[in-house]
Design brief:
Strand content of chain A: under 5%
Distance between the termini of chain A: 70 Å
Mean pLDDT of chain A: 89
Oligomer: homodimer
Low-confidence stretches of chain A: 1-10
Largest interface: A-B, 69 and 70 residues
Helix content of chain A: 55-70%
Number of strands of chain A: 0
Order of helices and strands of chain A: HHHHHHHHHHH
Structural class of chain A: mainly alpha
DNA sequence: CATCGTATGCTTACATCGTAAGGAGTATAT
DNA sequence: ATATACTCCTTACGATGTAAGCATACGATG
């Protein structure tokens, strides 16, 4: 009987957690379309249908991926001044989204907000940080959406743009595009080079600074 | 022979344009998952495979949807002051995204940037507007990403959140959620009511104002 | 220890998807 | 009139999510 046991024992027992982790790993490595019940099963040495003993359906796995990613958020160390703390937090969030390039596609699908405790900790952290600026509770709620929206949207644009290739390659593409443009698009032609020239990091900081400055000014104008 | 002709003639000839329009209509009415080659065909009184005479593949149809939506952008009338013009443009863009609730999911998929002339007109418009604030060309490029990211990200959050139901229903959900929260989440508990209380419109304006104020301050600090 | 319910995994099967291959009919060019 | 090209249809294939049912192994109870 020991052999019977060992035949089973030499593989870890399946759990929802292991399934979700595996799915995330596959997604990061080969993209969302590679995340398939059969594929996840194969990765775990199991048939696709076996997953259903631990998971309601595929969507539940995708929900799990969202929770897992959220829970991976690394809380940045606080800085001396508020603006810098805020920047660090925003960078950490963008960093996380970029580490799992397809996760924004999951967020974009209508699935309800993530509810697990682990995945709410980053939210709590962000709210606490925003409120520490001196905003009222009400403005804190609104600022949360402003920063959250900005960061997520920025990452989407970042992924969606030319995305691949070196900076030089990008610049070339932009030059060609600008050259082929009708007169009608003179502004686009003027500005286009900077799309490539300004790295994504710099662009991110720019918008972030706009938001931060906006918050600081608002706090000055009407303290909580 | 007239009869033979008429048998065919009584339905519009298939074109890429009609296919894309139909696909968008289906998507708006029943969501992205309803957009199927067979379904689009049925809607046009045609078999699925017939579509391939006018369209490379399904992805090309989805690209077409993105272009079509972009080209639907309604340019707002200019206002007396720059901030208000900017607000109108941002509202128009958000409005458009909300009119086609699943289009952000398409944008979020890695597909390259939309290149058709019609769909670049809104970009040109936005750049022209931003530059009119007094920003340098370089800062204009960056501000474009800031505003674009914010608007798109905001709409995603807006869709993803509780989304359905009246304001009262939302408020109730938030109350229940807050009540069930561990101590650890005191800030979330404090702020949560305002997530529901502040309507999405008000929240959008808040973040928008942050960005606009940021831009104005930057222009004042370093004119182009 | 025997047994029996419960959990876990496997096999098979089905509807639906995107689309490859090729046939039939019509319109246009020669 | 004949050939060519285009449009649309039929059929078929592999992949997907998952329903249904069977086999096995484990843990609790007698």
């Amino acid at each position: 009987m020991t052999t019977d046991v060992s035949r089973k024992a030499h593989r870890e027992p399946l759990t929802r957690e292991r399934i979700v982790e595996t799915a995330l790993r596959v997604m990061d490595a080969e993209g969302l379309e590679a995340v398939t019940m059969r594929r996840i099963g194969r990765e775990l040495g199991v048939e696709a249908m076996s997953l259903y003993n631990h998971v309601e359906d595929k969507e539940s796995i995708l929900d799990g991926i969202c929770e897992l990613v959220m829970s991976e958020f690394e809380f940045p160390d606080p800085a001396e001044d508020w603006a810098e703390s805020c920047r660090r937090a925003a960078r950490a969030w963008r960093q996380l989204l970029k580490q799992h390039p397809d996760v924004m596609r999951l967020f974009a699908e209508a699935r309800g907000p993530v509810r697990s405790v682990d995945s709410m900790r980053p939210t709590e952290f962000a709210l606490r940080l925003l409120r520490a600026s001196g905003l009222s509770d009400r403005d804190t709620a609104q600022a949360f959406h402003a920063f959250g929206g900005y960061i997520q949207g920025f990452v989407i644009m970042e992924m969606g743009s030319i995305a691949g290739g070196t900076d030089e390659a990008q610049l070339k593409v932009h030059e060609e595009l600008a050259a082929a443009l009708p007169e009608e698009f003179s502004t686009l032609r003027d500005v286009s080079p900077y799309f490539a020239e300004c790295g994504a990091d710099e662009q991110f900081e720019f918008g972030l600074d706009l938001l931060i400055r906006g918050v600081l000014e608002r706090v000055r104008a009407q303290p909580a």
